[in-house]
Amino acid sequence: MEIADKAVYDGTRQHAEEAALAALVSQYAGTLYRVAYSVLRNSADAEDAVQEAFLRVLRHRDMLHEVRDQRVWLIRIVWNVVLDRKRRMKTRPETDDVAELARVLPASGLNAEERAAAAQHHAHVLSCVEQLPAKERQVLMLSAFEELTSVEIASVLGITESSVRSRLFRARNLMAGLLNHERSAR
Amino acid sequence: MNPSTHTPITVNPGSSEFEATLRLIASLPAPEGLEERVEAGLHKAPHRARILQWPVALRLENAWVRTAAAAAIVFVVVGGGWGISSRVQPAPQVRAITTPPHGSAPGGFSSAGAMRTPQTLNGPVVAHPVATHPATPTPQAKPAKKLSAHRGKPVSATRNIAQPAAPPVK
C-alpha cells in the first residue's frame, strides 16, 4: 500500500515539475534566446544554447523551488552555456556576422543598399565590442538588456553592483576610443 | 527593499551609437515556435539517470520477484566464492627452515674459515675458606678490624701522627 502511495506521490510530483518547467519555457525562452544571440550572433547556435540551458534546468529541477529569482537564475545558466560554447567555437568570419545581421535586423523603410550599410555598421560596432576586455564586454552586453537591472547583472556575473557600474564605465570609454580611432583611420 | 537597487541601468540617449546597436540586438524577437521546439527537446531527454533505471519489463513490482532476485544474487556470489576456493590449492607447509649458505660477497670480507664460538663467561672461582678457631682470634685480626674502620690506615700510624714528640728534658 505504501509503495502504491509513493508511486502516486512520485507521479504527482513529476507532473508538477513538468508543468513548472513548461511554464518556465513559455515565459523565459525568448529572453534566454536574446541573451544567447547577443553573444553567439547565430540563431541556430542561440536556439541550441537555450535548449541546453533548459536541459540543465531539467537535470536540476529539484532545486526549482529553492530558486528565489527564476529569471535571473535562468539567464545565469544560459550565460554560462553561451560562454562555454563561445570558448569552444572557432572564430566566425566577420562576413558571416554581417550576413546574419542583415538577415535578422529589422529593416522597415530601408532599401537594399541602406539595409546593407546598416548591417555593415552594426557589424563594425560589434567587432569593436569584441576587442574589449572580457569583463567589460560582458557587462556592456548585458547592460543592453533593458529588463536587467544592475543588481541582476551583478547576480548573473557573480560580482558586486559597484563592479558592474565601474566596468560599464570603463567599457563605454573604451568603446568610444575604439570607434573614434576607427573613424580617424578611415 | 531598497529602490535604488532595482533601477535599470540608465543609458544616455545621445551618448553612444554602439549602445543602440547592442540594444537592437538585445531586443530581437525570438524565432517562431522556439518554445515548442524547446519543450519537444525536453520531452525527448531522459528524465532520470538511465544507468539505475530498470526497463519496463523488468520492474520489480512484487515481493516474490525481489526475493527470487536476491536469492539468485546470493547463489551466484556464494557459488563463485566456493568455485574459487575449491580450485586454489593451499601451499605445502615447510617443515625445515633452511638458511642460505654464507657465500662471501665478491670484494667483501669473508670469515676465512673461522668458526663461531658461543660467548661464555668464566664462572667465579671460590677459594677455600681458612679454617680458623673462632674462640682464639689471631692478633692480626684486630688491626684488621681497625684498619677497616679507618679506611685502610693502620692505627699505630695514626697515633704517631696525632701525638707530638715530647720536648727534650734539660
What is this structure's SSE topology?
The complex is a heterodimer of chains A (186) and B (170).
Chain A: H1 2-40, H2 43-59, H3 70-88, H4 94-104, H5 112-130, H6 134-143, H7 150-157, H8 161-185
Helix pairs in contact in A: 1-2, 1-3, 2-3, 3-7, 4-5, 6-8, 7-8
Chain B: H1 17-26, H2 34-44, H3 63-87, H4 141-149, H5 155-162
Binned strand content of chain B: under 5%
Oligomer: heterodimer
Share in helix of chain B: 25-40%
Characterize the biggest β-sheet of chain A: none
CATH superfamily of the domain at 1-89 in chain A: RNA polymerase sigma factor, region 2, helix turn helix motif
Shape designation of chain B: elongated
Question: Major β-sheet of chain B, in short?
Answer: none
Radius of gyration of chain B: 56 Å
Name its key features.
heterodimer; A: 186 residues; mainly alpha; Rna Polymerase Sigma Factor, Chain: A; elongated; B: 170 residues; disordered N terminus
